[in-house]
C-alpha cells in the first residue's frame, strides 16, 4: 500500500518501485512501532484525534509489536508496511496515525531510537571486552615481553601491561559511545516533513513518552541532519581500529618468527591445503572489517556533503551503513573477547638491547647527565658489537673499565617488571561505576 498517490494518475513503475524500495529499514520495525505508539497516544491526549481512536491505534500497534509483521513486495518501507498492517487490524482509523507527522521526522526518530539501544549493546560488549583484557592481563603479569617502537625492541614490559593498554583504549571507546548516545537521544518528532505542522501537537509529550531528551529546537535540523549517525559510526570505527591493532599484534605474535602467542583450538582455523597450519582468522577478520568500518565513516560523511536542507532521499542510504558498522563493531568485540581468553602467552625473551636504558640510568642515579650516560652506553654497545657481543655479555671488569662511574654490581642489569595492580584496581573501579 502506498502512503501517497492522490495527486498521481498512474501508479509507479516497477523499476521505480524496485529501485527506491529499501528493505534494510525493516530492522527498525520495533523502533518505528514504539515511536508510533507514543505519537498516537499524544494525538489522543491533545484531542487531535478522539481518545477512542487513539486507543484503537495503540492496541493495533501493540499487536504488531508482539506478533511482528509479514512484509509485502509493495511495501515501500517499514513505515508504510506498518500502516498497511495497522489498517488490516483496526480498519479505517489507521489512516489517522500519520496525523501531524511525516516519514521524514519518523525515520530520523527510528534511527535515533535504534542507536540508543545500539549504544547500550555496544557498552555491554565493550564491558565484556574490558573484563576479558583485565582477566587475561592479571594472569600474565609475570610474562616478560619487549615493547616495540618502530617495530624494533625498545624496553621490557609484561604481557599484562601490554593488554591493559587496550583496556584503557576500550574504556575511552565506551565513554565515547555513552556521550554519543546522550547527545543523540533527542526527539525529532513533530518536525513533520521539514517545518512542523499546523496541528496543536505536543512535542514534549512524545519525547517524554519515548524516554528521550527534549524535542529538537529546529525542525529543519531535526529532519535533515545525520551527524548523530556519523558520530555513532565513528565510535564503531575507533573501537574497530583499537581492536584491529591488537588483532595485528596477535597475528604477528602467533607466527613462528615471534612465537609469543599460541592460539587455542577453539579460536584457530585450519588450512584446506597445508596440514600444519593454525590460522588466526578471527584476528584477520577483525583487521579486515576495521577497514570496512573506516569506509562507513567516510560514506556517511559523503552522504551528507552537499545535501541541501532538509530531507533528501539520499538519506535512506544511511541505515545500511549504520547497521553494518554497528554489527561489525559488536561482532568483533564479542569474537576478540573470546579469542583473547583462548590464547596462550609465552615470555618473549627480549633482546639484550632492551637493557641499554636501565644501564644508562644507573649513571643518572649517580648524578651524570642523561645525555652523557646515553653516549657512554652507546659507545659500550659499539665496542661490544665490533666483538660480536651484546650488552648482556659485558663483564663487571669491562664495565668499570669502560667508565669508572659504573660499579661492578650494576650487573646483571635489572629492569623491573611493571606492577600493574594499580591499573587493574582502577579499571575494576571504572567497571563498577560505569
Ligand atoms: N525510507 C525513507 C528513508 O529511509 C523514509 C523517509 C521517506 N521520506 C520521503 N519523503 N520519501 O529515508
CATH top level label of the largest domain: Mainly Alpha
| Bound ligands | arginine
- pLDDT < 50 runs, ≥5 residues: none
Biggest sheet layout: 2 strands, antiparallel
Oligomer: single chain
The appropriate CATH architecture of the largest domain is Up-down Bundle
What helical percentage do the residues reach?
55-70%
Percent strand equals under 5%
CATH fold label of the largest domain = Fumarase C, Chain A, domain 2
Radius of gyration: 30 Å
Q: How many beta-strand runs?
A: 4
- What is the overall silhouette? elongated
What is the H/E order?
HHHHHEEHHHHEHHEHHHH
Overall pLDDT score: 95
First-to-last CA distance: 46 Å
Looking at CATH, the homologous superfamily of the largest domain is Fumarase/aspartase (Central domain)
Total helical elements: 15
* Order of the strands making up the biggest sheet: 1-2
What structural class is derived from the secondary structure elements? Answer: mainly alpha
Word description of this protein:
- With 434 residues, the chain is mainly α.
- Helix content is 58%, strand content 4%.
- Helix 3 packs across helix 4, helix 9 runs antiparallel to helix 10 and helix 12 packs across helix 13.
- The longest helix is centred in the first third of the chain and has 36 residues, at 103-138.
- The protein is elongated.
- Bound molecules: arginine.
- Arginine (ARG) is lined by residues 22, 25, 77, 103-104, 107, 311, 313, 315-316.
Amino acid at each position: 500500500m502506498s502512503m501517497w498517490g492522490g495527486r498521481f494518475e498512474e501508479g509507479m513503475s516497477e523499476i521505480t518501485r524496485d529501485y527506491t524500495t529499501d528493505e534494510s529499514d525493516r530492522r527498525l520495525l520495533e523502533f518505528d512501532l514504539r515511536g508510533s505508539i507514543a505519537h498516537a497516544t499524544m494525538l489522543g491526549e491533545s484531542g487531535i484525534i478522539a481518545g477512542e481512536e487513539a486507543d484503537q491505534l495503540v492496541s493495533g500497534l501493540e499487536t504488531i509489536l508482539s506478533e511482528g509483521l509479514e512484509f509485502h513486495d509493495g511495501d515501500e518501507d517499514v513505515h508504510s508496511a506498518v500502516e498497511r498492517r495497522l489498517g488490516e487490524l483496526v480498519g479505517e482509523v489507521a489512516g489517522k496515525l500519520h496525523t501531524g507527522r511525516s516519514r521524514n521526522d519518523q525515520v530520523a526518530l527510528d534511527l535515533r531510537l535504534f542507536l540508543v539501544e545500539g549504544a547500550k549493546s555496544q557498552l555491554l560488549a565493550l564491558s565484556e571486552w574490558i573484563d576479558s583484557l583485565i582477566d587475561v592481563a592479571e594472569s600474565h603479569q609475570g610474562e616478560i615481553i619487549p615493547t616495540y617502537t618502530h617495530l624494533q625492541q625498545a624496553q621490557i614490559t609484561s604481557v599484562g601491561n601490554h593488554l591493559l593498554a587496550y583496556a584503557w583504549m576500550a574504556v575511552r571507546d565506551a565513554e565515547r559511545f555513552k556521550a554519543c548516545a546522550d547527545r543523540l537521544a533527542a526527539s525529532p518528532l513533530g518536525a513533520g516533513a521539514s517545518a512542523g505542522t499546523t496541528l496543536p501537537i505536543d512535542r514534549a509529550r512524545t519525547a517524554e513518552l519515548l524516554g528521550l531528551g527534549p524535542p529538537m529546537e529546529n525542525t529543519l535540523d531535526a529532519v535533515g541532519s545525520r551527524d548523530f549517525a556519523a558520530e555513532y559510526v565513528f565510535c564503531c570505527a575507533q573501537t574497530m581500529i583499537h581492536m584491529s591493532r591488537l588483532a595485528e599484534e596477535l597475528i604477528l605474535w602467533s607466527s613462528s618468527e615471534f612465537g609469543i602467542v599460541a592460539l587455542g583450538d577453539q579460536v584457530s582455523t585450519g588450512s584446506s591445503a597445508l596440514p600444519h597450519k593454525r590460522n588466526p582468522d578471527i584476528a584477520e577478520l577483525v583487521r579486515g572489517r576495521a577497514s570496512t568500518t573506516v569506509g562507513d565513516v567516510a560514506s556517511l560523511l559523503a552522504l551528507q556533503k552537499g545535501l541541501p536542507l532538509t530531507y533528501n532521499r539520499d538519506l535512506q542510504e544511511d541505515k545500511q551503513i549504520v547497521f553494518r558498522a554497528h554489527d561489525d563493531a559488536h561482532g568483533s568485540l564479542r569474537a576478540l573477547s573470546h579469542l583473547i581468553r583462548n590464547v596462550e602467552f609465552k615470555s618473549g625473551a627480549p633482546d639484550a638491547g632492551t637493557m641499554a636504558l636501565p644501564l644508562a640510568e644507573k649513571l643518572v642515579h649517580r648524578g651524570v647527565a642523561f645525555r652523557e650516560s646515553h653516549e657512554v652506553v652507546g659507545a659500550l654497545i659499539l665496542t661490544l658489537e665490533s666483538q660480536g657481543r651484546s650488552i648482556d655479555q659485558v663483564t663487571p671488569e669491562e664495565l668499570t673499565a669502560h667508565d669508572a662511574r659504573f660499579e661492578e654490581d650494576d650487573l646483571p642489569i635489572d629492569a623491573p617488571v611493571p606492577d600493574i595492580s594499580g591499573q587493574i584496581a582502577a579499571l575494576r573501579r571504572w567497571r563498577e561505576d560505569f
